[in-house]
């Protein structure tokens, strides 16, 4: 077991903040006050778009978890048990998954402290992030592996159980690339020959780019978003931009849900609004698939469903998409009533995306 002095500074600070939070509950008891915990109201109506920072943030409205009600008392009880577990985990230099926390609670001695669902335990960990201003990664909490990877001319140093190791993310990895760890802040960037970062939604397109040698020909770090990107994926993308001064472009399917994937990379998501400045890359640009591409290249398509139409209409009101480009593209998509996948570009040949589509589009954007 590690002693407290062995805990790295950020982990020691995380543990102290957790203990301070529990101490607040005790002090409230001691002063004769009803224990309580105040949080931003975590609803869509309390999310604001910060135009100066180009990210989503919580508004001014708050809600209070108070022991005045049975429900409130149970939530504070669960918070106290979770704080105790996390503090002990940090002291022992252990880690666990969000799923394990849910099951671990079944061993707690008070039934009222046990979680009823994983959503409940996930939400509580997010609450603790907000009130302690410490990320779950510093609590040593991780989600199930996202499997997201990157491939490109980047040399890094990472911590492993066997100590530090240096990895070149082209030369020292297989075709699958380098798997992004749960906490990318443990990675040190040593050197790179990259000119930009290309975030790709689907595994099929990521594999096509790597197989065709796009990462080598254009000195690009290809980040596989694997659908809606995990926090670790968004964090490493932001670090690549901020620390290495690399442009970031996002390449997704041509549908409203994929535009929101771009939005989460660039501006943050509603669910993690408390971490937008830590995760979002407002300078990220959208490279496609655009509705205009569907028309220009006569791509194979699927018809828009009712949910697609509703989502597109909602995006017309979304602050993240209030530009002339997005208004034109969304209105065009509603007009043609079609959507297309990235792999639809293969209808013009397997090499079309790497020989023509991306080089032309990235040149237009001034990226290459």
Automatic annotation (TrEMBL):
Main EC class the enzyme belongs to: isomerase
Cofactor(s) in the UniProt record: Mg(2+)
Domain Spo11/DNA topoisomerase VI subunit A N-terminal per the UniProt entry, residue ranges: 75-140
Residues binding Mg(2+): 201, 253
Gene3D superfamilies: 3.40.1360.10, Winged helix-like DNA-binding domain superfamily/Winged helix DNA-binding domain
EC number(s) reported in the record: 5.6.2.2
Protein's job: Relaxes both positive and negative superturns and exhibits a strong decatenase activity.
Stated name of the protein: Type 2 DNA topoisomerase 6 subunit A
Source organism: Haloarcula limicola
